[in-house]
Design goal:
A hairpin with a 2-residue loop joins strand 11 and strand 12. This protein is mainly beta. The strands form four sheets. Strands 1, 3, 5, 7, 9 and 10 form a six-stranded mixed sheet that branches. Strands 13, 14, 15, 17 and 18 form a five-stranded antiparallel sheet that branches. A four-stranded antiparallel sheet has the order 2-4-8-6, with no helix packed on it. The chain has two domains: about 110 residues, Immunoglobulins (Immunoglobulin-like, Sandwich), CATH 2.60.40.10; about 80 residues, Immunoglobulin-like (Sandwich), CATH 2.60.40. It is built from one helix and 18 strands.
């Protein structure tokens, strides 16, 4: 009798460190992607270190808010068989980025779905009507579109130290005066951990993030996750008076 194969999708969101997906030996070359606006396409490597497993790969870019497939980018090849011990360079191609803001970064998510081939029944399971279950792995990483006008590595690194802090009734509010997304790591308030494991402290361009804290914060320290997933040196800032607070004109 025919066996029924059920495929369940396991979703993984990667925020830092080398991407090693133990299941099936799959790994992505990066944990985040920055797409410079002056490029027509960029590459992302996917490696299959398994000696046995074969995967079908499908990639797409999704909108950050709706998680719907974005029309701004397309990933090629649309479907790829990645054999054991091999690797492939997926290409992310810009299609319709003219409508995106030209003065600040835009956030998307790149999805790479790895689909296992249908398991072949063994002789002992020929009469098994229960079927089997296979897991597909959907890996999701951030994709930052950086317009050509602000492609400047020195400006990006300078933004790490430009974060400002202000007192807030709920704790402390961080303000990002730059046009870049800034993802914080190992954030501390008064030398105590303020960022739990897996918490995503990300400041949007010209945006703010409020961190809960009891009492008046005296200092905030943090690292920034860079374009290639590395951690910056630690920065320490002191909250400024709220009267000196300024925002960027939207």
């Amino acid at each position: 009798m025919n066996r029924l194969t059920t495929i369940l999708i396991m979703s993984l969101a990667l925020s830092g460190g080398p991407s090693a997906l133990a299941a099936g030996g799959l790994s992505l070359a990066q944990t985040r992607v920055v797409y410079p606006g002056d490029k027509s396409s960029i590459a992302l490597g996917v490696n299959n270190s398994s000696q046995h497993d074969v995967w079908l790969l499908r990639g797409w870019v999704a909108e950050a808010e709706s998680q719907q497939k974005s029309s701004a980018f397309v990933v090629t090849p649309p479907l790829y068989r990645l054999d054991a011990g091999n690797e492939v360079q997926l290409r992310i191609n810009a299609l319709n980025t003219a409508a995106l803001p030209a003065d600040r970064e835009s956030l998307f998510y790149l999805n790479v779905l790895a689909i296992p081939p249908t398991a072949e029944p063994t002789p002992s399971s020929q009469g098994d009507t229960h079927g089997n279950v296979s897991f597909a792995i959907n890996t999701r990483i951030k994709l930052f579109y950086r317009p050509a006008a602000i492609v400047d590595n020195q400006a990006v690194k300078a933004a790490y130290s430009q974060i400002r802090a202000y007192p807030d009734p709920r704790g402390v509010t961080l303000h990002n005066p730059s046009p870049y997304y800034l993802t914080l790591n190992a954030t501390q308030i008064d030398q105590r951990e303020a960022q739990g494991k897996g918490q995503d402290f990300m400041l949007a361009p010209y945006g703010e993030l409020t961190i809960a804290h009891r009492g008046q914060a005296r200092e905030i320290s943090y690292q920034v996750i860079g374009d290639y997933g590395g951690r910056s040196t630690r920065y320490t800032i002191t909250p400024l008076p709220s009267a000196g607070r300024s925002t960027h004109a939207e």
